[in-house]
Write a structure and sequence with these properties.
With about 260 residues, the protein is of the alpha/beta class. It has 4 helices and 28 strands. A 10-stranded mixed β-sheet has the order 3-6-9-12-15-18-21-24-27-28. The chain has a 9-stranded parallel β-sheet with strand order 1-4-7-10-13-16-19-22-25, with no helix packed on it. The protein has a 9-stranded parallel β-sheet with strand order 2-5-8-11-14-17-20-23-26, with no helix packed on it.
């Protein structure tokens, strides 16, 4: 159903079984996949592609012009994966260059009043709580949860199955499977509940992750030495390689002080 009171540009590509409510705005060069629902007063701006079964709530703007002085009006892009939910008053900016763009993976939830900046890549099954602010050029890996009012600064990287507690400010790289909280950001343990229930990981995997982060965050040594200890102490396995690979790919720069926890 497409309301006659909605604005749908003739060049927009609309899939089957799409519902566009009154007063929605669908711009030129937009693709909307099968089964999507666009609620009143929401806007899908040119260069945006929505996958299947995406729901966009009232007042959201998907594919908004990037808020970056480097953008000079070029045609740029925003892509939203299948089954993603975008709640009220969310703003998602397009990229600033003709190549690449902003991406949110499938089965993700972006809750009310959140903002995703230009060229950020958010993988599938992520949750952004109310009022989350993600700056430009951020990468967030699969299954990560950002609780309400988290701020992620430009070019930060967050590994998979991470939990960032509400109001925390991230300005560095958060390795996978961790929980981070407070300001300044503090390592708060291993995200075992999500690892067990949603990622289907074994107790051995969870133990190995906990052991790895004891070396990194609780042994009063450098990150370089902690990685050597992990290699010596933990048998090769997927979670060990995820942790080592992430930290080395980010030049050993990781969030949170490495201090002994009480």
């Amino acid at each position: 159903m497409i309301s006659p009171n909605a604005h749908v540009d003739p060049s927009a590509k609309i899939g089957e079984n799409v519902t566009i409510h009154p007063f929605a705005f669908i711009d030129r060069d937009v693709t909307i996949g099968d089964g999507c629902e666009i609620m009143p007063f929401s806007s899908i701006i040119h260069g945006t592609t929505l996958g299947k079964n995406v729901k966009v709530y009232q007042g959201a703007i998907v594919g908004a012009d990037p808020q970056d002085f480097r953008w000079k009006g070029e045609e740029t892009y925003c892509r939203i994966g299948d089954n993603t939910v975008i709640r009220e008053h969310v703003i998602i900016n397009r990229g600033i260059y003709p190549q690449g763009g902003t991406e949110i993976g499938p089965d993700s939830f972006v809750f009310a009043d959140s903002h995703v900046g230009h060229d950020s890549h958010i993988a599938g099954k992520c949750v952004l709580g109310n009022g989350v602010t993600v700056a430009g050029d951020v990468v967030i890996e699969e299954g990560t949860i950002l609780s309400s009012n988290v701020i992620v600064n430009e070019k930060s990287r967050i590994g998979k199955f991470v939990l960032i507690k509400g109001g925390t400010r991230i300005s560095s790289n958060v390795p996978p499977y961790t929980i981070m909280a407070h300001n300044p950001v503090t390592y708060y343990g291993v995200n075992s509940v999500v690892m067990r229930k949603h990622a289907g990981m074994s107790e051995e995997d969870i133990d190995n992750v906990a052991k790895a982060y004891r070396h990194i965050y609780q042994c009063s040594t450098s990150v370089f030495n902690a990685l050597k200890r992990i290699e010596a102490d933990i048998e090769p396995c997927a979670v060990r390689e995820d942790i080592l690979g992430f930290i080395r790919a980010n030049n050993l720069k990781i969030a949170a002080d490495r201090v002994e926890l009480e």
